[in-house]
Amino acid sequence: MVDFGTAEVTLEMVQASQLGMKAFSAALAVGLTGLASAIAEMTIGSAAVGATAENRDVFGLVLLLTVIPETIVIFGLVVALLLMF
Amino acid sequence: MAGLSSGFATNYIYACTRMRVRRSRLIPREDYLRMLNMSLPEIIRFIGDTSYRPEIDELGTSFSGIDLVEEALSWNLAKEYQKILELVPGDLKYFSLSYLRRWDIQNVVAILRGKMQGVYPGKIKEVQVPAGKLDKVALDRLLTEESPERVVEALKSERFYPTLEKEIGGAMETGSFAHMENELYKGYYARLIEDAKGGVKGGNIFLKYIQLEIDMRNIQTLFRLRTGHVQEDVRDMMIPGGTFSVDELQQIFGLDDRDEFIDALKRRVKMVPLLNALEEIRRLSALHEIEVALTRVQLDQMERISKRYPFSVLPVIVYLEEKKYEVANLRALARGKEAGIPGERLKGYLVM
Known about the structure:
Chain A is mainly alpha-helical. In chain A, 80% of the residues lie in helices and 0% in strands.
């Protein structure tokens, strides 16, 4: 049994903990921005499908509009990469 | 996002966007102005290049001239309304169906009038718009009935049967369906209010539309009655359920001076577009111009509310109403041209 009251915190332990926190933050950055993008794209996507159903000519334009929220998750990915490396 | 059924109602967004796109494809004001200078065959050719093309092509072999326009417009309207009912989801469908029941009343009253005057069923069929709950098959079945009483009997399962049953005797006796029609529409608006208050989500927004519609109808009726120099009690002709009470409307109607009458209306109204329209009406004398001005205000106000609630039943109803007026405009244009009325005069009858 480890006695936590007297146990020493070694440098390796601190480094491992830091790495874990970084990985966790990177996961949060990608995960949360992914969720935000999904919500935004869901709304725009429904409207885009509706508009395309009525007028096929707008497909290219609405496709572009639908992927604009994708930038949110790209920012998240960039933040995650900066955190990790 | 009031008016949504639950959570992220993507199907509402989908349906409302489709309505907005459809609305953007309605005939614009400039085209009406161009059509005012056209002859009837030119108008038919023009309509044939728009969304009415399938109907014009399909009916072109059986009808010609004004009959072709009338039939094509009615067919298109009914088809369009049925299509919209197919694509709107959940609660939107419930409210849209409620709203479209007005066509059932119009169709049934037309059948009753036709039957009473001994009009040939084929001729009555030409004026039918099967856009409500009663579809083509149901209306055809009604047309085969021999007498107005039999028609009423055949409608036993309908919401408006009790009113029909109560009123048909008096209507047959006097030979006028006007009172019965009033009662049917009053019943229709009462049911609409009931549906809106029935606890279905988005009902409060639907109620805003109903109240606006009732108010505008009542104000239009008041102007009509004044123009017709009616002196009697008008309470029976007013639709209850709007922001004006029936007694209040009677009180306003009682004012003899036209300016006083308009001032009394203005004191009660809060909507700025309606206030402006009433001020404009002060200098208008022709009834059709007053009606068009009020209709325009109603459509503008509905559009305004629909922008405040973009994913509710309102974008659907705005489209349905504007489509109705587009058909009415085209019919007025074609009929006017057929009768040789000059374009300048016809312009006053169009809701643009």
